[in-house]
Design goal:
mainly alpha, 70% helix
Length: 267
């Protein structure tokens, strides 16, 4: 997730040369990757035929799906019926958290270069300044997993639900504070530092609501997959809405600085 973002933002200097080159580069890389995968991916993996290990489990899941893409199930299998978790308060809370998280995530993915250039950065800085927040997030994401498991659960002996809530609180409150501080930022370097803190803290949601989906599914992979399907569908809405709203807010603002204040104070 973060590595791909870093690679993409590192190509920002290409926009000063010829902006379509960025799209052509990643489009062709995707095409080449498909060819490589098709040529090297094995038709089966060791252990699959014997039903052993992860390969065997995957084969079992694939075999449980008929040609129409629907799971083969009997009337005694409740998970194959209409999902009962859709109206559960805990699941709705996960959907709300994912929506809020993705609003900020997609806003920054789309508008971070424009925002930093409005503070004096150039596209040539993209290889470092634009991608640094996401490099910090890689470290923070792994630290967050350690904090949740080792510190909160093992050492502090918190209940699993309380640990999830603590991680999610950090993932929401710290970015909110950073966004408010961005309203008064006047330098690209200072803004990049605040953005790094916001994105890094947001990554702790992987040990919050994201991991909580597995808790709610009770360890059942099929139910967890259904939940993630619904949650990710809802999570694409802010990816569209955040870009539209941000564009209109900036266009209606008297100055660029005033526009960014409005974006971050409401984001």
């Amino acid at each position: 997730q973060f590595v791909g973002t870093i690679c993409a933002l590192s190509c920002s200097p290409l926009a000063e040369w010829w902006w379509p080159s960025i799209f052509l580069l990643w489009g062709w890389l995707g095409f080449v990757w498909c060819l490589v995968f098709a040529a090297l991916a094995p038709a089966s993996s060791p252990g699959a035929s014997a039903g052993k290990g992860a390969a065997g489990e995957e084969l079992g899941l694939i075999s449980a799906v008929d040609g129409s893409g629907s799971p083969r199930c009997s009337a005694s299998a409740p998970r194959c019926a209409r999902p009962s978790f859709l109206a559960h308060p805990a699941f709705l809370a996960v959907c709300a958290a994912h929506f809020a998280n993705n609003w900020g995530a997609y806003l920054l993915l789309s508008w971070l270069p424009k925002y930093l250039t409005s503070l004096g950065a150039t596209l040539a800085d993209g290889s470092t300044l634009f991608s640094t927040p996401y490099a910090v997030a890689i470290v923070a994401d792994n630290v967050g997993g350690w904090v949740a498991d080792e510190v909160l659960l093992s050492r502090c002996r918190l209940k699993l639900l309380h640990a999830r809530k603590c991680m999610q609180a950090v993932a929401m409150l710290v970015p909110c504070g950073c966004f408010l501080l961005l309203c008064g930022s006047t330098s690209a370097g200072g803004a990049a530092a605040l953005l790094a803190a916001a994105i890094a803290a947001s990554s702790w949601s992987h040990a919050g609501y994201a991991a909580n989906i597995l808790d709610l599914a009770g360890g059942d992979a099929a139910t967890a997959a259904q939940m993630w399907g619904v949650v990710n569908t809802i999570g694409t809405v802010p990816g569209i809405a955040a870009n539209v709203v941000t564009g209109r807010v900036l266009a209606a603002a008297p100055t660029a600085a005033a526009g960014w204040v409005r974006v971050f104070s409401t984001g």
